[in-house]
Inverse folding.
């Protein structure tokens, strides 16, 4: 299982990175391969390549703002999640994503 | 980034408002802020978007404002849990962050992003909860501070 995603919140100071950490921890716990990009006050970090996105089994966008370089996801089936929920209940977000992609 | 004078353990503050004012007052005295009210407005504006009480008993209020002269992180562990945000979540670990609106200091922002990640670790939270006084909490946060500096050095 390869999961990619982006986390981003309005000020891009704290939530963006907490959500990234929470989702990464949850993926790690489940033995998934993962790559989460952050779009915060520092700009884009840990950037996803088109190759990553094309290869992913699940694409999770936990974003509360308009993201940059959205065209990378054109024609892709995306699962949208709340930044808040990703921080507090990452297991629920991953479960819902699995359901979305009928991988459960 | 973590300043000893901005670490408050067993603080008697009882409300969100009181926490914000107490810290902002101190930050103002330390010449980190030029305007207490403007800063608190920025923090509350952010809070409206969605609550900064993110679970695990943590709140991480933050303001991006012209009233901030130099980025800072304050830590408050109140004596008793405080109700935070619109949904009144109980919190007992509060990090208040101030970031200047203009001159973006990447290092400061990096540091804050790293601290945010630390907060997701249970060990980090429990250690902070076990601190009996400001010195203990400061020593621990300062150690983390140094770890982060090392990590950032490796990255750059």
């Amino acid at each position: 299982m390869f999961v990619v995603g982006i986390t981003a919140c309005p000020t891009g100071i704290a939530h963006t990175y907490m959500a990234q950490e929470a989702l990464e921890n949850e993926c790690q716990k489940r033995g998934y391969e993962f790559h989460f990009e952050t779009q915060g006050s520092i700009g884009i970090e840990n950037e996803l390549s088109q190759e990553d996105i094309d290869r992913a089994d699940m694409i999770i966008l936990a974003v509360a703002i308009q993201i940059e370089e959205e065209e990378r996801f054109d024609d892709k089936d995306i699962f949208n999640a709340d930044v808040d929920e990703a921080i507090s209940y990452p297991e629920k977000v991953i479960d819902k994503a699995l359901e979305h992609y009928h991988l459960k | 980034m973590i300043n000893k004078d901005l670490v408050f353990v067993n603080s008697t503050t009882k409300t969100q408002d009181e926490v914000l004012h107490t810290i902002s007052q101190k930050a103002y005295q330390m010449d980190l802020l030029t305007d207490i009210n403007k800063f608190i407005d920025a923090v509350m504006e952010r809070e409206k978007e969605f609550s900064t009480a993110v679970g695990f008993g943590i709140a991480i209020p933050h303001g991006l404002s012209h009233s901030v002269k130099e980025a800072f992180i304050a830590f408050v562990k109140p004596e008793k849990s405080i109700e935070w945000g619109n949904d009144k979540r109980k919190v007992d670990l509060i990090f208040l962050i101030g970031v200047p609106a203009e001159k973006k200091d990447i290092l400061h922002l990096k540091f804050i992003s790293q601290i945010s990640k630390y907060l997701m670790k249970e060990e980090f939270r429990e250690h902070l909860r076990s601190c009996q006084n400001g010195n203990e909490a400061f020593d621990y946060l300062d150690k983390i501070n140094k770890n982060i500096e090392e990590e950032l050095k490796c990255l750059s």
Notes: The CA atoms of residues 2 and 33 of chain B lie 15 Å apart. Chain B has a mean pLDDT of 91.
